[in-house]
Write a sequence for this structure.
């Protein structure tokens, strides 16, 4: 996988556009072969080509995306340059409103001098790209009014009444100081977990982070926040190393977005990226404890293994064929009952996957289902890391859809796996582990087309 800073963004008629391309004019045809499917791109607005509504003089990163296989021949002359090709980039971060990284900050993140010359096809290292994208995500979060909190935890009898499940839920009662802010924030809340002086390990340290999916009243006077995207800090952060708002004696305290992201950076979470798992040595208990979170899962045979693919594999070409409108998932609009069953299949597949991988000795280090990474779950076993996309299939046929982002990740990462579970809603389900080699041998057929006038 390669990483790029793209400085060409012709706007044609001067209006904002919600599609991303890498553009090539006649003098740059040699650049086309450098871009591969799965490459990551940060888009930059130049001073000569300002984006409407942007900062004075533009000069800012305004989007990131992933290169696709789509290349389009064009015939457009803009600013004296004749553009002949453009390559589609699937957007990853592209806010509707202006939320950009100015050039000065981009230079700082990339460790470039102030007079560093930007140009088309500007190559970035993985670390440079991740720092830029992480800072961009931070700015978007702040703009969308996320609310940030530090919540106290301790493996102490006084805390058992809250019925916390590490990495999955955080409980509190009507007697807890700061509860109202967390309840009102709902799914906009982002949390830092702090180990109090009553903890047995990592006392007075910030140790993990998570987003809140929802906060619910589970019984009179007792609340529970369901967590999403839980990640343990590789390096627990001493509370004395950073000034944080609020009284540390309060179980829930609101902090600023700047403080939140500073703690993440100090804890090492800013450096987490696909294929780079979090440490599991935190006093919170390491990775999420997996097990029977719903109905018991009977042991079933697993077809395949979590063994990274050999280098140099190439996927079969896409098979162009007519789609049978009367076959399986190609039928018309899905009714409410089917949507409910699809959702149940998805949730059941995740649960089965977590149960079985836990029994095989893998630890879940990151739940990425809502993070847009191109896979659902990130696992570690010793020094091995597996990026797992889960597919719940109600029928018996091993057939499923993959998004452009998922396929790009499959192409780019040898440790990417699809765990597809057929007959997922039955007790006789079958688990198929498909690595890069198996995925590349499967027939790919188009299931939908994007039409542009």
């Amino acid at each position: 996988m390669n990483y790029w800073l793209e400085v060409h963004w012709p706007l044609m008629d001067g209006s904002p556009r919600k599609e991303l391309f890498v553009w090539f004019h006649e003098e740059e045809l040699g650049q086309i072969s450098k871009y591969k499917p799965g490459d990551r791109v940060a888009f930059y607005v130049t001073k000569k080509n300002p984006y409407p509504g942007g900062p004075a003089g533009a000069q800012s990163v305004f989007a990131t995306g992933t290169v696709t296989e789509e290349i389009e021949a064009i015939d457009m002359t803009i600013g004296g340059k004749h553009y002949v090709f453009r390559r589609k980039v699937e957007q990853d971060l592209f806010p509707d409103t202006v939320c950009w990284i100015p050039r000065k900050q981009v230079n700082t993140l990339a460790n470039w001098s102030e007079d560093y010359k930007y140009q088309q096809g500007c190559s970035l290292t993985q670390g440079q790209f991740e720092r830029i994208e992480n800072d961009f995500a931070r700015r978007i979060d702040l703009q969308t009014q996320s609310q940030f909190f530090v919540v106290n935890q301790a493996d102490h009898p006084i805390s058992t009444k809250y019925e916390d499940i590490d990495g999955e839920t955080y409980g509190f009662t009507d007697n807890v100081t700061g509860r109202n802010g967390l309840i009102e924030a709902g799914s906009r809340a982002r949390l830092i977990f702090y180990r109090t002086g009553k903890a047995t390990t990592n006392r007075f340290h910030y140790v993990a982070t998570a987003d809140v999916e929802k906060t619910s009243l589970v019984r009179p006077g007792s609340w529970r926040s369901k967590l999403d995207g839980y990640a343990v800090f590789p390096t627990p952060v001493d509370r004395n190393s950073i000034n944080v708002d609020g009284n540390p004696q309060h179980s829930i305290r609101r902090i600023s977005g700047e403080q939140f992201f500073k703690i993440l950076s100090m804890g090492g979470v800013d450096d987490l990226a696909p294929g780079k798992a979090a440490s599991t040595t935190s006093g919170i208990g390491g990775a999420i404890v997996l097990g029977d979170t719903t109905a018991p899962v009977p042991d079933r045979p697993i077809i395949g293994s979590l063994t990274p693919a050999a280098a140099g594999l190439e996927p079969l070409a896409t098979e162009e064929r007519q789609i049978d409108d009367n076959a399986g998932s190609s039928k018309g609009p899905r009714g409410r009952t089917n949507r409910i069953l699809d959702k149940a299949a998805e949730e059941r597949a995740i649960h089965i996957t977590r149960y079985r991988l836990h029994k095989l000795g893998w630890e879940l280090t990151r739940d990425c289902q809502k993070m847009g990474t191109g896979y659902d779950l990130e696992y570690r076993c010793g020094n091995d890391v597996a990026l797992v996309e889960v597919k719940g299939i109600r029928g018996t046929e091993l057939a499923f859809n993959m998004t452009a982002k998922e396929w790009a990740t499959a192409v780019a990462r040898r440790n990417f796996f699809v765990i597809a579970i057929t007959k997922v809603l039955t007790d006789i389900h079958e688990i198929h582990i498909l690595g890069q080699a198996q995925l590349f041998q499967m027939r790919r057929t188009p299931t939908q087309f994007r039409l542009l006038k």
Q: What stands out?
A: The domain at 302-441 is CATH 3.40.1350 (Trna Endonuclease; Chain: A, domain 1). Residues 10 and 78 are 7 Å apart (CA to CA). Residues 12-16, 270-295, 322-332 have pLDDT under 50 and may be disordered. The first strand starts at residue 3 and ends at 6.
